[in-house]
Amino acid sequence: MLRHIQAIAFLTLLMAGSSTATPPRAAKVAGPDTRPESGNGLFKSYCASCHGLSGKGDGPAAAAMRMQPTDLTQLTRRAKGEFPAARLEKMLGGSDGITAHGGKQMPVWGPALSVAGVTDTRTAQRVRNLIAYIQSIQDKAR
After folding, report:
1. How far, in Å, CA of 17 to CA of 81, rounded?
2. Band (3; pLDDT cuts 50, 70, 90)
3. What is the pTM assigned to this prediction?
4. Beta carbons of 88 and 76 less than 8 angstroms apart
């Protein structure tokens, strides 16, 4: 019994001593990646299933689609040599009405690229990073 009382006293002192110590810090939780190189990861997460890892429209889900996914490596060539960044931004935001990506009321990519509680600025940065990655995979051959 004496040992039991001693153990309780020891634990009480230990706990009392910890209350005067510095308060515990909240764990740092990584937010959504907005580094420029995150475009590659975003592409792999959200685009590659249809467009393929290479962006050529040959992803694993492509066979199940009625229309072949766009070969994203040919966007600059198809736009007569100018990469269509503004059009991609509208497409990813759902404002251009491409049905495969969802309608204006419920675009597929907006919720996928944003995270609850994240500012629009950070979501916009993720979209820009994704667009920059797509620009980097453009076929250079003419």
Report:
1. 69
2. low
3. 0.66
4. no
